[in-house]
Amino acid sequence: MRGALKTEKRRRGQLALVGVIALASTLVALLSLYALQPRVAYERGHLQAAQLIHLARACMASGGCDRAKLAQLVQRLYQLNQTYPLRAYVTRVRQAPNPGAISFKGNAITVVNTTVFEVETLQKLFTGSSEQVVVEVRTVSREAGRRYPKQVGERTYTMVEVRVTYAHVYRSPFFNATLCPALRALDGVADLKRVGGCEWLAGIPLELSKAVNIGGARYFGYELRDEFGVPVPILFRG
């Protein structure tokens, strides 16, 4: 009985092997009849959206980023893409990042800079509508209620402790992401400590802060920079 089963299994294995050989022979014969014609598929999604995000950040870092300046950078991006070459979809600047919108809630002061690009993806062919790549840079400042002195060289500063939430939010037809960039002080006086994710505890030197008028009320403003060179405005009552 066992011998018969082994014989049957061996026969099935031989038939399967013959089938594989026959299939391989058929494929080889077909390939010899038709010339292969590889085609290149141009990527028009994640890469272009990421380029626009980098462009918006660079514009903000350079200062004075308005609609005209951003449009010039988009045109330069097209030139570079054609040089490499890369295929890019049609892009228009709908909104430039500066000046930022300021809002208040309790003791929190929020500054939001938003850049909006309109892009013509495949959706344009079916709906007639463009899609958007949005770069939102959000800074929330909350006074922590603590002051302390700090000696730097021969000078003593009055440090105002501020809790800062700082984030970049990227939205596109291809991906959505939130980034928590590192912060730094240009004058080397401010104290910065990341306390988790996008949350920071900042000691801001009152003497190096500028008095600003917002809606008829007096505030103090101090500028940090993120790892991309983008200005980070910290506002507090003082």
Can you give a write-up of this model?
With 238 residues, the protein is α+β, with helices and mostly antiparallel strands. It has one domain. The strands form two sheets. Strands 1, 2, 3, 4, 5, 6, 8 and 9 form an eight-stranded antiparallel sheet that branches.
Name some characteristics of this structure:
238 residues; alpha+beta; 8-stranded antiparallel beta sheet; 4-stranded antiparallel beta sheet; 4 helices; 12 strands; 30% helix; 42% strand; elongated
Question: How is the secondary structure organized here?
Answer:
Elements: H1 2-33, H2 46-62, H3 67-83, E1 91-95, E2 101-105, E3 108-119, H4 123-127, E4 131-152, E5 155-171, E6 176-179, E7 183-184, E8 191-196, E9 199-205, E10 210-214, E11 217-226, E12 231-236
Antiparallel strand pairs: 1-3, 2-3, 3-4, 4-5, 5-6, 5-9, 7-11, 8-9, 10-11, 11-12
Helix pairs in contact: 2-3
Short description:
By secondary structure, the chain is of the alpha+beta class. It has helices at residues 2-33, 46-62, 67-83, 123-127; strands at residues 91-95, 101-105, 108-119, 131-152, 155-171, 176-179, 183-184, 191-196, 199-205, 210-214, 217-226, 231-236. The strands form two sheets. Strands 1, 2, 3, 4, 5, 6, 8 and 9 form an eight-stranded antiparallel sheet that branches. Strands 7, 10, 11 and 12 form a four-stranded antiparallel sheet that branches.
